Amino acid sequence: MKNNLRMLGLALCMLPMCLRAGTGQDLNPTYQPAQGQNTRSAEPLPASTIIPVRLNSTLRSDKTRSGVAVTATVMQDVPLGRGETLRRGSKVTGHVVDAITSGKGSDEARITVQFDQVRLGNRTVPITTNLRAVASPHEVLEASPQPSSSEATDYEVEIGGDQISYAEGGPVIVGSQVVGIYTSHGVLANVDQDLGTPCSVTIDSHAQPQAFWLFSVNACGSYGFGDLKILRSGRTKTGEVTLASNRKAVKVDKGSAMLLRVVGSGA
């Protein structure tokens, strides 16, 4: 009986190896999604969590091929509730789904990307996200805090709106309404997603704080890229985001900022 049990256990251990061998998958693919065994114990990121990131490389529809990995760095601590935090410096990873240059079957250049995993501590968590806003490196620089002087007012106008942030620990204001506070790494606002419109939010002092970094809470769309537009924001099961331009090629430079919103997470 013991020998039978031992043989059964060995067969079960060998089964996953046989299955992998039978698929004929490339042992060194360009991009590899998160594996389930690394994520079972990971707590998912709550839906509607805002993740501000900065691209680690340039995206170009005329030079970036399908399947190439895309990485971005989280720029501000992101509260997740339950005492957990997605730390600043964490990596969000995805890949290029498709890239089209204008004149080759399309009147406009397009590039489609998908962010689908995030490093949470020592765990890799699969996620589905959509894109609220994207901003050029110049817009990021303009919204970044500058050293104060006797001739400068100690406030910043955030990307995508009339939002004013007053120094570290000071209030973040839209119009006459306080929406949050400014931390050492960016805006932390108490807002809820308004499901009636893609990007608008409602101010709620009891809501889970959201990290907007240098973006306004009402930021929506493209900033600093001329005619670049978000053709598809990723509001699908796969979270595919398509950026389009009437120019020959779509170019989103390294250092550009994105405001991602979690649709779902977990294995």
Structure, described:
This protein is mostly beta strands and 267 residues long. It has one domain (30-267). 11% of the residues lie in helices and 41% in strands. It is built from two helices and 20 strands. The chain has helices at residues 2-23, 137-143, and strands at residues 50-55, 59-60, 69-74, 78-81, 84-86, 91-100, 109-120, 123-135, 156-157, 164-165, 171-174, 177-183, 186-193, 201-203, 209-213, 221-223, 229-232, 241-245, 251-252, 257-265. Strands 9, 10, 11, 12, 13, 14 and 15 form a seven-stranded antiparallel beta sheet that branches. Strands 1-3-6-7-8-20 form a six-stranded antiparallel beta barrel. It has a two-stranded antiparallel sheet with strand order 2-19. The longest helix is centred in the N-terminal third of the chain and has 22 residues, at 2-23. The radius of gyration is 21 Å and the shape is globular. 37% of the residues are buried. Residues 1-42 have low confidence and may be disordered.
